[in-house]
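Figure 3 (text version): structure tokens given as input.
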């Protein structure tokens, strides 16, 4: 449904909100995302935003023209979750957060089991977007992190005015948007499940906000928004996806700027039955099981090929800095890194040393210490997370081991090597310069 690509960006109507506030508010009966309303506000606050969106749109269309086929690389996006809470219930558990990351990784890789519910007529559209998400292991200073921040606030609730993204307003400032997807989880008022900021906006407010009852699949997550799909939908916006009905109310002229989605009237709530026809789009009707509609969590389970292309074009363009983020690399212990040439090993410790030499061309040595004998794997990955070499995959005795790595077949760049044995895992970065 691709027409009037630029016109409708300027004709967005504010979405009316349900009047509900406070922590005791009941669960909204239907999905309500405020992303377009926030876009409308941001465009009023910043007259240049529209032009930046137009430029990004041109980049996306150029990219899609020159890259009709997606390559096989899996993109890995570091995520930081900022929990901003007043009550104990709002201070959601780490397992609730992890459950949301798991949902994102299933949905954006088409690994979600409910994708089998896509009607046969649309089955060919459901796509693996090849986008993965990882809770950050390094904070902006390179220090060890869980990828979760927790901020106690005096605010009863937050609205869509972005105060949750500002420490000075009782929220939490973002980590650099160039390296992390920032997700804030808080008590969101107004019956809004969540909202996102499209690419091209201010880095100080970039990211997505989700109500704590609509995040993940466990803990405070509440039916019918307890399968983590609010975040899937909002991260879709953050990667430049529009609502599937084209944000023109119930008209048939609005566009989601994606060519393989059927033209659709308005949004769908709840769990419609197939087919649901609008805008003369029969016999198959609306793609209401798409993540960018307004259906309940259990009834949305697919992105299309066109949506995947649009998101990947955005990651290759305006969000390309994420591709070189080290937010999910293993934290480097600084004194270990500085003593590359002075390797000292304690025999009872699991240690992966910095390779030597580093940078290297084309061979280098990787040494490590095992406190106990066991099955060991040592693998090398490129910056996208793709495995490029398996150096060890067998049973080794306790003690020090050294492996030579020949990178003749690889091109210059940053690589990671990861050692795993039993419950011990360690990863380091190395630089090949040819
Ligand atoms: Zn939305």
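Below: residues designed for each position.
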């Amino acid at each position: 449904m691709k027409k009037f690509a630029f016109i409708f960006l300027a004709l967005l109507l504010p979405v009316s909100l349900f009047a509900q506030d406070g922590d005791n508010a009941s669960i909204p009966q239907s999905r309500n995302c405020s992303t377009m309303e926030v876009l409308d506000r941001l465009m009023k606050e910043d007259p240049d935003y529209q032009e930046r969106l137009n430029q990004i749109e041109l980049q996306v269309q150029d990219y899609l023209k020159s890259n009709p086929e997606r390559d096989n690389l899996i993109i890995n996006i570091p995520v930081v979750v900022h929990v901003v809470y007043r009550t104990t219930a709002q201070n959601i558990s780490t397992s609730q957060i992890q459950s949301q990351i798991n949902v994102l990784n299933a949905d954006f890789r088409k690994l979600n089991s409910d994708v089998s519910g896509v009607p046969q007529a649309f089955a060919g559209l459901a796509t693996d977007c090849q986008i993965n998400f990882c809770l950050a292991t390094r904070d902006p200073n390179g220090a060890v992190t869980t990828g979760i921040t927790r901020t106690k606030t005096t605010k009863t609730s937050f609205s869509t005015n972005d105060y949750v993204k500002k420490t000075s307003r009782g929220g939490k400032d973002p980590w650099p948007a160039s390296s992390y997807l920032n997700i804030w989880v808080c008590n969101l008022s107004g019956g809004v499940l969540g909202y996102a900021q499209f690419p091209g906006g201010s880095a100080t407010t970039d990211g997505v906000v989700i109500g704590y009852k609509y995040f993940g699949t466990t803990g405070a997550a509440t039916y019918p928004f307890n399968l983590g799909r609010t975040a899937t939908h909002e991260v879709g916006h953050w990667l430049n996806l529009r609502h599937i009905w084209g944000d023109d109310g119930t008209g048939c002229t609005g566009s989601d700027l994606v060519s393989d989605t059927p033209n659709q009237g308005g949004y769908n709530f709840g769990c419609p039955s197939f087919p649901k026809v609008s805008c003369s789009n029969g016999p198959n009707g609306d793609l209401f099981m798409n993540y960018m509609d307004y259906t309940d969590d259990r009834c949305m389970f697919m992105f299309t090929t066109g949506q995947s292309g649009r998101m990947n074009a955005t990651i290759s363009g305006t969000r390309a800095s994420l591709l070189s983020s080290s937010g999910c690399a293993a934290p480097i212990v600084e004194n270990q890194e500085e003593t590359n040439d002075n390797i000292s090993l304690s025999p009872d410790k699991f240690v992966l040393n910095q390779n030597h030499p580093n940078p290297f061309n084309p061979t280098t040595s990787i040494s490590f210490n095992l406190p106990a004998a066991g099955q060991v794997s040592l693998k090398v990955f490129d910056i996208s997370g793709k495995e490029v070499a398996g150096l060890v995959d067998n049973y080794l005795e306790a003690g020090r081991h050294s492996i030579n790595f020949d990178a003749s077949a690889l091109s210059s760049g940053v690589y990671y090597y990861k050692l795993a044995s039993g419950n011990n895992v360690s990863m380091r970065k190395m630089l090949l310069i040819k």
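Residues 33, 35, 233, 237, 243 surround zinc ion (CB under 6 Å).
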